[in-house]
Amino acid sequence: MNRENKKLNVGDVAPKFSLLDQNGVVRTLEEFSGKWLLIYFYPKDNTPGCTTEACEIRDAWGEFKKTGAEVVGISTDSVESHKKFGEKHSLPFTLLSDSEKKVVEEYGVWGMKSFMGKSFMGTRRTSFLISPDGKIAKIYENVLPAIHAEEVLRDIQTLL
């Protein structure tokens, strides 16, 4: 089934997932219930924008913890790639491997992209703020990596 046109909306129940983290441990959406959760989808480990976004979240980690929020980064990279990326940049949050592209499709972030005049299928840089009751509280499309952590923290404070 081609889900490129799938569109989630604020208020929808967040689609469930079950994916391996950077340590090879199965992680599910259910384990985060009762907490604010930022699920951020990103194209590729160790690329400039993705590294900036991850490091901005890392640098704001203390503020995320003060709100009680959790963060999960998801890309189609392998568990091994995530492990190296996380260690290289001392990332304190979970990275999940969606190598089969099921979750990126379920969340509607897998689709046509273009870069330097070439079109290709890939993950759109999109984030979902999930409320403690498991519903989508906010959707961030066309995320700007350098300011995303600050933007999400501001929104969590407003919604608390």
From TrEMBL:
GO cellular component: cytoplasm
Broad class of enzyme this protein falls into: oxidoreductase
Enzyme Commission no: 1.11.1.24
All residue ranges annotated as the Thioredoxin domain in the record: 8-160
GO molecular function terms attached to this record: thioredoxin peroxidase activity
Domain of life (superkingdom): Bacteria
Catalytic-site annotation from UniProt: 50 (cysteine sulfenic acid (-soh) intermediate)
GO biological process terms, semicolon-separated: cell redox homeostasis; cellular response to oxidative stress
One Pfam entry name: AhpC-TSA
Reactions that this protein is recorded to catalyse: a hydroperoxide + [thioredoxin]-dithiol = an alcohol + [thioredoxin]-disulfide + H2O
Record's keyword terms, sorted: Antioxidant, Disulfide bond, Oxidoreductase, Peroxidase, Redox-active center
InterPro entries: AhpC/TSA, Peroxiredoxin_AhpC-typ, Peroxiredoxin_BCP/PrxQ, Thioredoxin-like_sf, Thioredoxin_domain
PANTHER family from the UniProt entry: AHPC_TSA FAMILY PROTEIN, THIOREDOXIN-DEPENDENT PEROXIDE REDUCTASE
Function of the protein: Thiol-specific peroxidase that catalyzes the reduction of hydrogen peroxide and organic hydroperoxides to water and alcohols, respectively. Plays a role in cell protection against oxidative stress by detoxifying peroxides and as sensor of hydrogen peroxide-mediated signaling events.
UniProt subunit comment: Monomer.
Cross-referenced NCBIfam families: PRK09437.1
Similarity annotation: Belongs to the peroxiredoxin family. BCP/PrxQ subfamily.
Record protein name field: thioredoxin-dependent peroxiredoxin
Species in which this protein is naturally found: candidate division WWE3 bacterium GW2011_GWB2_43_22
